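Milestone M4 deliverable, item 7.
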Amino acid sequence: MNPKVKICCISSVEEARIAIEHGASALGLVAKMPSGPGPIADDLILDIARTVPPPIATFMLTSETAAQAIIAHHRRTLTNTIQIVDELAEGTYEQIKRELPTIKLVQVIHVIDESSVEEAIRIGASVDALLLDSGNPKAAIKELGGTGRVHNWGLSRKIAEQSKVPVFLAGGINADNVKKAVDEVNPFGIDLCSSVRTNGKLDPYKLSLFFQAINS
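Output delivered:
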């Protein structure tokens, strides 16, 4: 079975419609970030999320690191999924789930070295899915996604093999390397942003090429 596809950095109702028409199973809506492409205002995330039909997943990407702040952020956007792009530093996943029992939690793991594998397996016990990306939370200006870089897929494969929850693979994936990514990692889903855009805008032609590649 082909992996699900999440198109990230959606910036308008029109982009959401185009992504869904081409076959996206999930949309990423990027809130305020320290760096990276695609952030939009919370009220626009809310407007877009309201137009997306079930069963399409709407992921609100939050850089908040405290459980209560994440809960408050979600209440401003009302997506059906929260993607936590940084380490949860205050509070617990259980606390978020108690207050938002119908919302799915996805934790981003920035795959850097073997410790990332251990981190992923530990955190996977508390969330609904993991998303493996190529950021660097310890950089002077935090990189929390949207780098366009490929990371070590060997490490990601170890995580996918051991994880008890679905795993999405992100970071530099495009029409040319997606089949290799799927073969090497065997993820539940693929996440992409910049490779299906031209001058920052979602490009239907690049989307078509990508879905042809992943479905071939």
